[in-house]
Design a protein that fits this description.
Blueprint lengths: L10 E6 L2 H4 L8 H16 L3 E6 L7 H6 L4 H25 L4 E5 L8 E2 L2 H9 L3 E5 L9 H12 L3 E6 L20 E2 L1 H6 L7 H9 L4 E5 L5 H6 L6 E3 L1
Parallel strand pairs: 1-2, 1-6, 2-5, 3-4, 3-5, 6-8, 7-9
Antiparallel strand pairs: 8-9
């Protein structure tokens, strides 16, 4: 998408995994990567697109892995929610460095660093051209940040979910195991569920299906792909 190309969507929900923020590092945040992502979001906002973001926390903490080692699952998940807030604050800083007015809202109250999630307030921020970053998932254990992404997208009336990953889209099998795995141009919600394709967890896909919310899955590592997704270019996979 060139800077003169018109966006296809007016309001979007960008779902960023924690892994998208770690760049070439094994864990944590890679600031150059955070700045690059923030720059692409800033360009989208400059075109008049209302952008909300849900961030994961897997670059810092994975609740399931901690639970598998014996930690209480609910406690492990709450720790993961806190990790998503760390990522949200980092992304907010990078966006504000790019002169983008930004708000962080969290599902678990942390009033000293972020607003509590209030749906109407979030929508009002978007209408005022502010980027809204949602942290702390849904605020409930046993739900992933993917489910939080779909839930927030439905609540704010987003037209599409842009799911940024580290692969080129949805494959018919694991490309790390099968070198002949093929990427889909489009796939139905039902096929994703029935074939157990690793797009989002089943709860997230079912919620998107129930609300007829399309999901564009694309490779975040390629610079400019947010623009291409916004323009409706054929990149990655569309789940609908």
């Amino acid at each position: 998408m060139t800077k003169s190309a018109p966006p296809k969507y007016h309001r979007v929900l960008l779902k960023l995994s924690g892994a998208a923020l770690k760049g070439p590092r094994d864990f944590g945040l890679d600031w150059a990567t955070v700045e690059r992502i923030a720059g692409e979001i800033a360009e989208a906002a400059a075109k008049g697109v209302e952008v909300a973001v849900v961030v994961g926390g897997g670059n810092i903490w994975r609740g399931r892995e901690a639970a598998a080692q014996g930690m209480d699952r609910a406690t492990a998940d709450y720790a993961g929610m806190v990790a998503t807030v760390i990522n949200a604050l980092a992304l907010q800083q990078a966006l504000e460095d790019a002169r983008v007015d930004t708000r962080v809202q969290t599902a678990i109250e942390m009033r000293e660093v972020a607003e509590p999630f209030i749906r109407r307030r979030a929508i009002r921020h978007l209408e005022k051209a502010r980027v809204v970053i949602f942290g702390a998932g849904t605020g409930n254990p046993h739900f992933t940040s993917d489910t939080a992404g779909v839930l927030r997208a439905v609540e704010i009336g987003a037209e599409v979910i842009l799911k940024a990953t580290d692969v080129d889209g949805v494959f018919d099998s694991d490309p790390d195991v099968n070198p002949d795995a093929q990427v889909f141009d489009e796939v139905s919600y039902l096929d994703v569920l029935n074939r157990d394709l690793k797009v989002m967890d089943g709860t997230a896909i079912s919620l998107a299906r129930d609300n007829t919310l399309p999901i564009v899955v694309f490779n975040m590592r390629e610079t400019g792909n947010i623009f291409r997704a916004l323009a409706g270019e054929s990149i990655g996979t569309v789940v609908h």
